Amino acid sequence: MLNFQAQKRKRRSFKTQILIILSIFLIVILAKPTWNMLNKYFSAREQLLEAERQLEELKEREAFLNSAIEEIQSTVGQEKEIVRKFDFVREGESLAVIVEPEIQVVEEVSDVGFFKKYFGWFFGSRD
Q1: Phi–psi pair at 125, nearest 5 degrees
Q2: Which of 49, 77, 121, 124 is the right S-S partner for 71, CB 3.0 to 4.6 Å?
Q3: Is the pLDDT of residue 56 over 60?
Q4: Measuring CA to CA, how many Å separate 53 from each of 28, 37, 43, 49?
Q5: How confident is the model at residue 117 (pLDDT cuts 50, 70, 90)?
């Protein structure tokens, strides 16, 4: 009887070990697809936030463009645009065009050569 119970315990422990090994194997096999899905979720979430931000920017731009169109459709807006683009002036008006002077950049050219400039201390001359 004792021999029979010992064999039964061995069978149970063997079955338990097999189930543990199969469970670990199953977890390892399912871990990679789960990890990939998690990465895709985070990536899609970031893309959604970026798309929402771009949508807000486009809505702001649309509002700006609609206001510019409304302004240009009025006669005052058309006149402003003609004056801006073509420097057009009606009779009795004067137009002053202010031209900013160009900034001239003067580079100093040194008469000291490369070796004299960097190795002057070695040759005894310090300019």
Answers
A1: -105, 130
A2: 77
A3: yes
A4: 38, 24, 16, 6
A5: low
Non-local CB neighbours of 112 within 8 Å, separated by 6+ positions: 120, 127
* Alpha carbons 112 and 120: distance in angstroms, whole number: 10
How many whole angstroms separate alpha carbon 9 and alpha carbon 32?
A: 36
The model's pTM: 0.46
Residue 90 DSSP code: -
Alpha-carbon span 64 to 70, nearest angstrom: 10
Chain-centroid distance of CA 35 in Å reads 25
Mean pLDDT for 71-80 is 86
Residue with tokens 């003609």: 82
Q: How many helices (H) and strands (E) does the chain have?
A: 3, 0
Q: What is the dihedral of CA 15, 16, 17, 21, to 10 degrees?
A: 100
